[in-house]
Amino acid sequence: MSENFCLFSRFNELNASTIFLADAKLTNIDSPFSNVTVNGILSSDDITSTNISIAGNATITGNLTVSGTTTTVNSTSISIADINIELAKNATTATQANGAGITVTGPTTPATLSYTSADDRWNLNKNLNVTRVYGTATNVSTSITPGSYITG
After folding, report:
1. Quick one: 94 exposed, middle or buried, by C-beta within 10 A (0-12, 13-18, 19+)?
2. I need a surface site. Which of 11, 28, 33, 36 has the fewest CB within 10 A?
3. 101 forms bridges with which residues in the sheet?
């Protein structure tokens, strides 16, 4: 049997040791709750809130869309299953993608790998240490010997 409850008063805070609504629906809520605390499981197909704080683990079983201008992840480890990360996704020209890249902010001078549209190249602001480089060297004015630097 299903029961319907109508609430027509403003709640500043809702505190109760147990609220049990078996097969019940809250309908016609006249005004929003200012503070709702749930210790346990809260399930809903539609939650609208200015701020949501989750102290424990959160699992999102569907897609997650973030529509703000800044997304901050405070985590010590991030695992991404996708094999490709897209930067400057909405850029339709190279100029709009200018400066896209990765920044490591730990050093005094942050280490960057960034795209420059003026010369259509990837640029690093730190030395690159590699075992081997494969490809064809063009516009090299001197011969390259192991352990030497290429300049120019």
Report:
1. middle
2. 28
3. 114
Q: How much is the pLDDT for 116? A: 96
Q: By mean pLDDT, which of 20-34, 59-73, 137-151 is the weakest?
A: 20-34
pLDDT, tens digit, for every residue of 58-92? 888 888 888 888 888 888 888 989 999 999 999 99
**pTM exceeding the 0.70 threshold for the entire prediction:** no
Helix (H) or strand (E) holding 101: strand 101-104
Farthest-apart Cα atoms in the chain, separation: 87
C-alpha 69/C-alpha 95 separation (Å) is: 20
Q: Please name the residues in contact with 152: beta carbons below 8 A apart, sequence gap of 6 or more.
A: 141
Query: What is the number of other CB atoms lying within 10 angstroms of the CB of residue 43?
Result: 6
Q: Which of 123, 125, 100, 121 is nearest to 110 (CA)?
A: 125
